[in-house]
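Bench notes, bay 3.
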Amino acid sequence: MEFVNRVNDTDLLYGSSQENDIGRYIKYYGGTKVLINYAKGNEKVVGLIDKVKRSLRSAGIDYVVYKSTCPKADIDDVYEGINLCNIENVDFILAIGGYSEYSCSKIIATALKFRGNYLNLFKKETEIEKALPFGAICTSVAGGSVFLKQATVSHKQEDGQLVMYKLETEATKPKFVIYSPDLCTYDNQNIKLSTVRIFCFLLYRYFSNQKSHDLSDNLSLGALRTLVSQVDKLEDDPHDIECIENILNVSFFANISFIYTQVNKATLLELAQAVECVFDCSFEKALALMTSAYLEYNIKTQQDKFMKLASQVFNVEYDFYEPVKTARQTLEKIRKFIKRLGCPINFKDINADAKDIERVLNKLGFPAIKKLDTQEQLTQTDCEVLLSLTI
């Protein structure tokens, strides 16, 4: 069988109508009974689901449909999915959607091969060696997130507190990923939020990359420049296929490029998830908020990178005599871009203030922990200073 590309043991199937052959692909990997997982309430993918069902029937593959919570998968979805798979003898998981659907499907796939209480999967000391085969069809321009080792689902407790369950394993590498711009035009708001996710993720990649040199910086800047340039086109025509294709390709570059180090334990992602829990907002909005603060926190120590970003992405002229001035002008451009896509840049935008900083710190694990278990190893004081920049 020939595939368009192969990355990290995953077959990338790019182009129109690939979903019509989904039955053949799953059969190739030994699937005989498939769980089709997509978001409850996402009626805009009904036509796609019908194509998938027809392809599976043509290949002689049975299936069962499961709809997880939209837009944020819940731990209860995982529990129901596990039970359904056990009852139906499912041996392959197919996720259709974006990060939420990927996460839910990956955790279900892992739990089905795990002995014992599946909640133990989320303990740091648990070793995860295998999972049920898993494949994905991207309907989000942020489809590159399917390659992240991390899967996250949430749960709102009776007291209103939001708890995050995180799983990190290589066992859920997708067997194949179908990605086509034709499948990513369902929801304009989703495209904007996905663009914010990619934008913030790339900025963190650029500023935190441990392999920083001219090649990696220039590739990162090129990806950011491409992403930013598509926003005007999107506003003129939310279904511009060429524009969506460019954003989708940037997403895959951001997640699987060889120039980047692993960022599953990224400070920015940990901060964003803490904010998401405390304020029960979307992850993209929390990520946008913390990206603004993270860049402000690094503005004096990363002046060279800000200078490159200024001229190559945002058309801000260098001020060699006052590099911090250039950096601040660039940060202001970034904030305007984030706001333009409907996301917050400070606590006020999410009806929060300085007193909420302690709640975020507690959600991060302080004072019980001394440092964040992430690349930058920030202390409680570091995080408090960084969070104060959101006010």
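Next record in the batch:
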Amino acid sequence: MESLSSVLLSWYADHGRDLPWRQTRDPYRVWVSEIILQQTRVAQGYDYYQRFVERFPTVEDLASASSDEVMQQWEGLGYYSRARNLHAAAKQVMELGGFPVDYEGIRSLKGVGDYTAAAIASFVYGLPTAVVDGNVYRVLSRYYGIDTPIDTTAGKKTFAVLAQEVLDQKQPALHNQAIMDFGAIQCTPKSPDCSACPLLDSCAAYNGKRVDLLPVKSKKTAVKERFFTYIIILEESSVFLHRRSSGDIWTGLYEPLLFESSAKLSLDDAFAKISAYGNQTKYLKLLASVEGLKHQLTHRTLYADAYVLECDGAGDDSLLKLLPDDYIKVPLSELSKYASPRLVNIIFERTII
């Protein structure tokens, strides 16, 4: 009987995806692609990858760029800590004098975990390091009928050892690409086409009628609700923004004045909060609003309202003097230069753009 790896390699020869980062052994470009694809589907990440390496064609270009430039290229892709880590790691590479050439060195870069280090090590340097991502968990758990939860220490260890055991030591890059594509295209999370699967006869999950039950997760992360009320203040064809501080998924991105609460705020409630910034608020008038927006993140459901207010008649004493010190006045014509969360961009598109 053919080995699992040989079947996967044969399938990959006919069905593997032709992707630009698979046509290079440049560690920088492979690394960028892997970071983009950590939490992003290939279809969405493809264009981001192309734009990112066009703007920053080398690790030197990325390391020397400003954080605003990097975040602007990442805008809309989400999981912004990836961009911050990528930028920081580029500076690490420059300090090291070049990209690391072994697994441990690659793993030491900021934002690089076991999977990403294994992928780069095998794709770029041909090292026999097996990747274990969601697709690999799924293929291995179904094929071998393993019900150890993949989100436990025991499960992670079990699958890491198994992935290394089945790895084709002579063709690690092709094997890793094959098993990931097989999971993404053939052995899909829902409704896989088992009748056309080359592993059908030897698949434990199929023969045990457990395809829909594997892989197993021990727990689900609770989804929390947050209520956002954005106050978009316009003055002289400009908008007031500030950069979101550290400690949040949107760190480094720009947004208008925001009030977070445990429940929806009324417009009167919002005005009462704005009044804390001084009498200047008497010059604010409502121009537009967007209410009831729902924005889903992985572990958060955001409910957002936004009110566009114009500061009119305040004379020489700009409202900027009354807002916290980190606010800046940005001309609407230059708004695109400031990277913002997707939710904020949706609000801007519906109100002031």
